[in-house]
Amino acid sequence: MRYYYAEHQAAYRRLEQEGLTQWNDLFEDDRTGDFDAFPNRAFLERALVRLGLTTADVLEYGCGTGAAACFLAARGFRVDAIDLIPEAIALARRFARQRGVSVNFSVQDVCAMPAGSKQYDVILDSYCLQSIVTDPDRASVLTAVRDRLKPNGHYILSTAMYDPDRVYEDNFRYDATTGICYERSTEPADDAVQLDNTWYLPHRRHLRPEALRAELEANGLQVLSQEGELRGDVICTPTRRG
Ligand SMILES: C[S@@+](CC[C@H](N)C(=O)[O-])C[C@H]1O[C@@H](n2cnc3c(N)ncnc32)[C@H](O)[C@@H]1O
Q1: Rounded to the nearest 10 degrees, how much is the dihedral formed by the CA atoms of 154, 38, 23, 237?
Q2: What pLDDT digit, counting tens, does each position of 199-222 carry?
Q3: For the chain, which ranges sit under pLDDT 50?
Q4: Ligand 1 — pocket residues by CB below 6 A?
């Protein structure tokens, strides 16, 4: 099993048991309980205005329970939305049905998208990328984004970043060189690494702004803007091939 599967599946099972509607409500003290108040909403709204988008073909990967996807569908965007975890997609379908909006949800790993599929005007990431930690996995995601964007399309990304005020608990270990946060593991599972005789699993990637920008550009994505307190709200377009 991949390093992030069990954690994410457990989160959505707990979310359903507790009657919550989105990922953030599990982890944030300032939970709103409001499905429409998803964390990157203000940035997404600004990006749509800035890019002059009122209707478009959108792919959201890592959509979770679908709050951003439903927001876009309610405004007339044609939305395909994928998540790795079946429990998340089941909830997303239920919440979309309750709101009377149409989103094409499916269970899909963004690191293993079939080649040659549809092209999009917008690809959206609402806090998925930090969970995809290793270099090969991140290259797979960014290649999938690059290959599925129309030439004038846009990648709208919100991701967790390096935060000098973040405190990593004792069972975590942050490697400042790579930006990888590891979580202690009881066994040598797939993707585990051994550090000081202890097994760890890749847990999150918390990059500094310049490292994120360099990674995007190395994968054929030109950064048009990078904003937010920690500079994790980014708009890209495919680099012109020349
Ligand atoms: C922090 S949650 C954010 C969920 C949602 N976008 C939100 O804002 O509530 C990250 C999401 O990415 C999904 N995810 C992680 N790796 C993925 C992958 N390889 N392919 C598709 N989804 C993935 C997780 O299952 C989870 O739903």
Answers
A1: 10
A2: 999 999 999 999 999 999 999 999
A3: none
A4: 4, 8, 22-24, 38, 61-64, 67, 82-85, 88, 109-111, 126-128, 131-132
